[in-house]
Write a structure and sequence with these properties.
Order of helices and strands: HEEEHEHEEEEEEHEEEE
Number of domains: 2
Structural class: alpha+beta
Distance between the termini: 83 Å
Shape: elongated
Radius of gyration: 28 Å
Oligomer: single chain
């Protein structure tokens, strides 16, 4: 049977242990508060503040001239027009020629004769009710039937520095053929548009001219479809966004 002296000695020890546990709990709560209030939340707000206002209502797909779905938006850059042209040039991209009879005849002839056409034109697609402002491409080999290409549309909204966002649709042309919907001669795209998005991102990063970049997950909820030429496409739904250094 425990003596009264032992019971009296146990009480301060138990009380001290309880106080110690309480102090540890309080300390952990304080540390958690500091981390959340002074690290995580400010970082989150800073990240949000760096996002361009045009991202809030950016459409996720382009359209053709007759309002059929076109190629998905999967790239965005922030900067002036001169900034965009400079970084694309540094990344090894060529500005695409304007559409017209002369360029149409040239690309047809070069395709048949296996001749390179580094700045071959691209067909028009529409975003925000207008066709692309700029288009760039990278040839693959000596025949224009295969090429990397990306179209850009300038947003009307600008960030606090007065810079627009350029929404881009990047796809890879794998061959020339007839449109599945109109029967017209056109390029057919590779279905995996994420590979082309990542290619654009990689070439831009290699220039060292991006001040920041991120991949925004779940930008689009629809992950597969067909473009205006009837070509299938699929994506993980992410959007690459880069800010161009000034």
């Amino acid at each position: 049977m425990e003596s009264s002296d032992n019971r009296e000695a146990t009480k301060p020890t138990a009380s001290k242990a309880a106080i110690t546990r309480t102090l540890w709990i309080i300390l952990r709560i304080v540390v958690l508060y500091v981390v959340v209030a002074y690290v995580l939340l400010p970082a989150g707000w800073s990240h949000y503040a760096q996002r361009h206002p045009a991202l809030d209502n950016l459409p996720d797909i382009t359209t053709t001239h007759d309002h059929h779905p076109g190629d998905p938006i999967n790239v965005a850059l922030i900067g002036s027009e001169d900034d965009l042209k400079a970084i694309m040039h540094a990344a090894g991209w060529f500005a695409a020629d304007k559409l017209g009879l002369k360029s149409d005849v040239k690309i047809a002839a070069d395709t048949v004769l296996d001749r390179p056409y580094a700045d071959a034109p691209v067909s028009n697609l529409y975003l925000w009710g207008r066709k692309e402002d700029l288009a760039f491409e990278q040839p693959v080999g000596d025949n224009p039937r295969e090429r990397h290409h990306v179209r850009f549309w300038r947003s009307e909204q600008v960030d606090p520095a007065g810079l627009p966002l350029w929404a881009g649709a990047a796809t890879f042309d794998k061959r020339v053929g007839f449109s599945h919907t109109t029967g017209q001669i056109t390029h057919h795209i590779a279905a995996d548009i994420d590979t082309e998005r990542d290619h654009v991102a990689q070439t831009l990063k290699q220039t060292g001219r991006l001040s920041s970049d991120e991949m925004i997950a779940d930008f689009r909820q629809v992950r597969e479809g067909h473009n205006g030429g009837g070509d299938p496409w699929h994506t993980d739904g992410s959007l690459f966004v880069g800010s161009i250094s000034r």
